[in-house]
Each structure stands twice: as C-alpha cells, then as structure tokens.
Amino acid sequence: MLLEATVCYVEKDVEMATTTVSADTASTPPLARRRSRRRAGRELVDGLAFLAPFLAVYILFLIIPVIQAVYMSGYNWDLLSSTREFIGLRNYTRMLWGTDIVWSLGYRWPVRLVLLTGTAGLLYLGRRRGASKPALACIAGGGLALVVLLGFHLSASGAWNDPGFWISLHNTLLFTLVSTPILVGLGLGMALALHNKRKAGGVYRAVFFLPYVLPISAVTLIWSYLLNPDRGLIAGFLGWFGVQPIGFLSDPKLAMPAIIATTVWWSVGFNLVLFLAGLQDIDPSLHEAASLDGANSWQRFRYVTVPGLRHVTVLVAVTQLIASFQIFGQVYIMTKGGPGTATEVLIQHIYEAGFKNYQLGYAAAVSVFLFVVMSAVSAIQFRLISKDA
Questions:
Q1: Residues 255 and 339 sit within 8 Å (Cβ to Cβ)
Q2: What is the pLDDT of residues 121-137, one digit of tens each?
Q3: Could you tell me the pTM of the whole model?
Q4: Which is nearest to 251 in space by CA: 229, 233, 273, 275?
Q5: Which of 58, 191, 260, 342 is the most exposed place for a label (fewest CB within 10 A)?
Q6: Pairing of strands 84-86, 75-77
Q7: What is the spatial distance between Cα 369 and Cα 96, in angstroms, rounded to a whole number?
Q8: Whether residues 241 and 119 fall in one domain
Q9: DSSP strand pairing (84-86 vs 98-103)
Q10: What are the residues whose beta carbons fall under 8 Å from the beta carbon of 184, sequence distance 6 or more?
C-alpha cells in the first residue's frame, strides 16, 4: 500500500510538471514567432531598399522592352504610320517559313547525326553531374526538336518568305561558333602566361587590355586601315615578300575572318583580366601540395587550375556568347554586311527591317527570336559548365 501511494504521488508530480512545461511551451512560441516575423519583415524591407535602384533600372530597361517587343511582334507596325493592324503570328511565319517547304529524313544527315551525338553526350554529362530530371528532359527535348526541325528544307520550286533572315542567322551562328572558343581559349592562355610574371607583368596586362577601352568606331578605323589593300600596313608587309595585295574586306571568303580577327583583338583583353583575377583567387598551397604528390604541369592545370576557374569560365563563356550573338558595330562600319551578304548578321537585319523598311513589327519578331535563342543557349551552357549543374 505504501509503495502504491508513493507511485501515485510520483505520477501526480510528473503529471503536474508536464502540464506546467506544456503550458510554458504553448505560451512561449507565439511570442518568439512574432519576434521572428518582425525581424524577417525588417530584413525584407532593408533588402528591398537596397535592391530597389537595381530593380527599377532592370525593369525599366530590360523587362519592359522585352514585353513591348513581344507585344509589337503581333502587329503590322509601321514606323511612319499611326495604323497598327493585329496579325497574330504572321510575322513569325514570315520569318521562319516559306512556300513549298518539305521534310525529309536524310536532309543534312551529317549535321543531324552530330547533333544527336552531342545531345547524348550532354545527357551523359548531366547525369554524371547529378542534373535534375526536368533539366535532362529539356536537353533531350531541345536536341530532338532541333533534329526534327533541320529536316525541313525547300523543294525544287520552294522559296523562303525572308531569305535575308536565314542568311543573317547563318552568318551570326558562324561568327559565334568561331569567335567564342577563340576568345575564351586565348584569354585563358594569355592569363596563364602572365600569371606570376613579376617583371613587366603590369605593363603587359595594360597593353593587352588597352584595346578593350577603345570605342568600336576607333577599333574598326584601325583595322580598316590595316586591312586596306592599297595603303594598309598588312599589304605593305606582304609586298616585301612579293605577295599581291589582298582585299580582305572585299573578298566574301575573307571578310568574316577579318571581322573575327578584329573582334578578338578588341575584346580578348577583358577575358584576360577576368581569368587573371580567377587565377589569383586559387590558393597557391593547392599547387604546392599537388607538386609534392608528384603531379606534373598538365595534371596541376587539369585538377587544380581548371576547377578553381570554373565560375570565372562560366562568366566569360556566357558573356562572350551573348556578345557574339549581338555583333553589329564591327560589321556595319567595316563591311555593311558585304560583300553581298557575306557578313550580314541578325542585328543588322533587325536594324534594316525596323529603320530602313519601317517594319517595326517584323523587326520585333526577329528580336524576340534572337532573345529566345540567346537565353536558351546561355542557360544550357551555364548548366553544363557550372559546378552545381
């Protein structure tokens, strides 16, 4: 009986203590939650106050123009007329379609096979890096869609609605595919050569970066003089060896390489500075540890330098890709798209459609197409190169 009474007494004490703790626990969290909400609200207001100037500029000069371009692309919008007729998607069909368009399985099969192989490689890399299923699905769907779309072509009697669009798209893609790897690779190589170069290192950096601060008009003037077949410096240098003057800017096969060379000389210094900053952020002890473990120069570059430059490489590659898609100044000043249409690019096509032919609606449709292509390619590139992909 005494034992039972003692047990009952202990159980009552435990029950009372539990009730007291539960009451305290029930009363404390609401107050803490209110304080947490107030703190979070103050932090949100402070954060929005800091972001407000950037958001205002971003919305005013990027978001609103994109929305306006999408809106204008649905209209027959004449620059000199106040009448604007809604035509739906006809600007896009004019841009991307034509008459007597057919589809065949064997058309451009080498290109489509390379594209399929590349898509499979991207999927393999994505799976190895732990990419999400939606990302892998987007890559697979985009690759297969391009393979299917490349099967469309003109029949013997067919014609594109706007042949100039396809010519300018081809020239833009050619310029981007050639110039972007050169600019990224050359910038990295120059940065590696100048890294840890104590004697005259600052002088070399300034000399290589100097062209980037020049306006595009000055750059094109310099290179137009260099490439002039009559009195240019390159023509005079070749004349010493008995080589006849070469019209770089008047030859359809050499005009685009001349534009690429001009662009590389002008902008590689910016990539050099970014890569140099990335190299300086890599801890030197990592290279010392790799050397002590017996790693050679190539192994240190592959397993220490490349991973350490991953984020800088993403920045350089994406910004360079976007800049290459938007090429206009060099082409318009040096060749005006010529000779013929050998160097005509998409931005020039947009400019001529909107401000020479006064077709703002169609120019807006081409602009939206270019924006979508740049966004998709940049997103895929970012996901593939980024460490967190």
A1: yes
A2: 878 877 887 777 877 88
A3: 0.82
A4: 229
A5: 58
A6: antiparallel
A7: 10
A8: no
A9: unpaired
A10: 271, 313, 316, 317, 320
